[in-house]
Structure formats: C-alpha cells, structure tokens
Design brief:
The chain has 163 residues and is mainly α. The chain has one domain (7-34, 50-161). 79% of the residues lie in helices and 0% in strands. It is built from 7 helices and no strands. It has helices at residues 9-31, 37-41, 51-74, 79-105, 109-131, 135-140, 142-161.
C-alpha cells in the first residue's frame, strides 16, 4: 500500500479539490482568460454569458470535480479499478487545462472547438468509470459535462462567427 493510499478520506478529498482548483487557476493565468482584450473584440453570440460569470462557475465546477475525484480515491473499490478511473479523470483534466490556453492565448478557435469535443468525450468516459465506483462521484460530474456541452456550442459559434 502506497503512502497516498494511507491518507484519511477527508484529506484525499481536500487534495483532489486543490489539484482541480489549481489546474483551473494555472490554466487561466497562462491563458490570460480573465481580462483578455482579444476576447473582448471578437464576435460572440447574443447568448454569450457575461464574462464575470465564468470564474464563479468554473470555481464551483472544479470543486465538484475535486470532490468526485476524492470520493473515488477514498473508495473501497479495487485499486486497479480506482487507478483506471483516476487516470481517465487525469486525462480529461489535462484536456480541460489546455482548452483555455488554446482558445484565449493562441486564439485558435477551430482547434479549441475540436479539443473541447475530445474533452466532452473524455468527461463522459470518466463519468462511466466513476459510476462503477461511486454513483455520487459520477453525478457530481454532471454539472461539469453540462457546462462543457454549453461551452462546446458556444465555442463552435464563436469559431464560425470569427472564421
């Protein structure tokens, strides 16, 4: 048994939340997503949410994602099953990290749209993996995939409006 497996369950959840929140913060800083002059000047649909909404929504989503990850990590499921589910989670978090950078820093709206479609699929696969271990963990990812579904449509629309 590794040292990480000996941690108390609450500490695993806290660590998982911190990992998710840190991923979002670092990605946002690299992408300059908060106050991005480029984003202010491009064409957006009338239903584009106000910029001030994104940070609170993502903070909440990263919290839910972290709790979900922590629940899987602290579960009594077989180690191999937990490890596989957590690897899927890590892969989707990797794609999540890069989307903001591709979109906001590199202004590659078409590539960002393609990337978010892969992210959506990875989230779905993670939900299925988590469901086999913890129904609660899988349900905690539903707001995330819902928001990414909306963000996918928004990303596509922005790409097409600015092509």
């Amino acid at each position: 048994m590794t040292q990480a497996n000996k941690l108390p369950g609450a500490l695993k959840i806290i660590i998982a939340v911190l990992i998710c929140e840190a991923s979002g913060i670092i990605s946002g800083l690299i992408a300059n997503a908060g106050r991005n002059p480029w984003f202010d000047t491009i064409s957006k649909p009338s239903w584009n949410p106000p910029s001030a909404l994104f940070a609170p929504v993502w903070t909440l989503l990263y919290l839910l994602m972290g709790i979900a990850l922590g629940l899987v990590w602290k579960s009594n499921a077989p180690q191999q099953q937990k490890q596989a589910a957590m690897q899927w989670f890590a892969l989707q978090l990797f794609f999540n990290f890069w989307w903001s950078i591709i979109f906001f820093r590199f202004h590659a709206t078409g590539l960002a749209f393609a990337e978010i479609l892969v992210l959506w699929l990875l989230i779905l696969l993670t939900i299925f993996r988590f469901a086999a271990i913890s129904k609660t963990a899988s349900w905690l990812l539903v707001p995330y995939i819902s928001w990414v579904s909306f963000a996918s449509v928004l990303s596509y629309t922005i790409w097409r409006l600015n092509a």
